[in-house]
Amino acid sequence: MNRSKFTQEMFNDVPELKKIYKILMKEMPYKFPKKYITWEHLAKLISFYLGLTTAKVIEEELANNNIGRAQAVHKYSLWAIQKAPIYCISNEVLEAMLNTQIKSEIIQNIHISLPTVMLLFPKNTIKHKNGFIDNAVIHAHDKNKPELSQGLGWDFKVPKVPHYQDEAFDINVTCTSIDTERNMLYTGYPVGQNVSADNKPEGIFYDLKQILLMFYVILQSNPEMVGSSKEIVKQKGFGTDHNIYPRILKVPPKKYCSNNNNDTRGSVRTHWRRAHYRIIQNNGNPKLVYVNSCIVNG
After folding, report:
1. pLDDT truncated to tens, each residue of the chain (298 aa)?
2. Which range of residues forms the domain containing residue 21?
3. What is the pTM of this model?
4. Whose CA is closest to 119, among 218, 252, 2?
5. CA distance 215 to 100
């Protein structure tokens, strides 16, 4: 049973979910662009997980090694309780995210500006098994700030869920998603010093890690890419607009590309260079600079 049918059946069988849904629709009246999941559908999915949010349920799921389900209950509920932001990712930015090289020095210098955030992807874009991934919750587990991984609101208490790498690293950024066929995905990446980039760039879990890392890099180094989706959501009438519109990541502007014969950082032969971020010193402070993909020495 796919995600849409499942959530609808659960709503028909569990009246409590309708109460949670009404709270979400009242407290967070979102309006999404048409090519993304609807807020109504997403709110029903979140209502289902909020209804399961108890320490006992999460502990039972972890004890049964249902890591994905435990993380889904925790992350989607945490996002709602914290009223964390939503970012729509355009096709162009998504393509850039998946085709940009992330080096170890970048991971070691990423600034986590948002502990919890929901990302929306264009429908029918990220393929996974028989379905598609159209949303994901990004969360940063900070060993020194456990309060950021728990919450209280609307008579719900979201407990902290332990991360398997908590003892090894101070911060672990995770990505949790339920695709359109109800497959649960959970992956993550430690950030900070002594962290190395993933050397096996293949598979959906690598793609999700790439997306979550690139999201924070873009916020840190390219704030001009962030805009409001209100301008692309058409509204009818002239009444007061009480809707909330998610932020959107726009196409990154072209910046630097070294493609001359004096380039001494790589081979002198003609070759294709993947887009990447480079750290430069700006008055003694490290700064991330985006370098577009290009033909070098062509």
Report:
1. 899 999 989 888 888 899 999 999 999 999 999 999 999 999 999 999 998 887 678 788 878 878 888 889 999 999 999 999 999 999 988 988 888 877 788 788 888 999 999 999 999 999 999 899 999 999 999 888 989 999 998 888 888 887 655 567 888 999 999 999 999 999 988 887 778 777 666 789 999 999 999 899 888 887 888 887 776 666 565 556 778 999 999 875 554 444 444 444 444 454 455 666 665 655 555 566 666 665 454 4
2. 3-249
3. 0.83
4. 218
5. 12
Do 62 and 103 belong to one domain? Answer: yes
Question: Residues 208, 277: one domain?
Answer: no
Q: Do 63 and 130 sit in the same domain of this protein?
A: yes
**Which pair of tokens denotes residue 147?**
């309060």
Rounded Cα distance between 253 and 249, Å, is 12
Tokens of 134: 């159209």
For residue 282, what are its two tokens?
Answer: 């700006």
